[in-house]
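Figure 3 (text version): structure tokens given as input.
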């Protein structure tokens, strides 16, 4: 068992490297925080145009898969997630995002995590970013 006072970087095997000075996830004791995950597949370069990943559905599902990869690497899953933050670039995307998110988490047992949704600017072509806070153990 690791020292609960030590912070550990969580990096899924599929992760292609951060584009900035951060870890995909950080764990300290029973707390796991994922970094914001964009809707880019592992290994994909940053977006150069909206033509690469033009649709919200594809980006939302990929961002959720990327969060899942960090959770899994830490030996966790969505059942441990207590808080989700969703960052959207357009208020018009809320309804579709909500439907996709609900369908993705529909198989989870127990209550859904708390969630905050905000509207922000993201790198060119990115429509969504999602992060999660989990309590393990």
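Below: residues designed for each position.
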């Amino acid at each position: 068992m690791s020292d609960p006072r030590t912070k550990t970087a969580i990096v899924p095997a599929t992760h292609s490297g951060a584009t900035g000075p951060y870890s995909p996830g950080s764990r300290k004791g029973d707390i796991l925080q994922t970094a914001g995950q964009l809707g880019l597949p592992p290994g994909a370069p940053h977006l150069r145009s909206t033509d690469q990943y033009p649709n919200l559905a594809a980006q939302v599902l990929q961002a959720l898969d990327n969060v899942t990869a960090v959770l899994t690497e830490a030996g966790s899953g969505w059942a441990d997630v207590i808080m989700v933050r969703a960052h959207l670039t357009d208020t018009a995307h809320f309804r579709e995002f909500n439907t996709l998110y609900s369908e993705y988490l529909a198989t989870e047992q127990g209550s859904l995590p708390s969630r905050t949704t905000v509207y922000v600017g993201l790198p060119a072509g990115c429509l969504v970013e999602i992060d999660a806070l989990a309590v393990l153990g």
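The mean pLDDT is 88.
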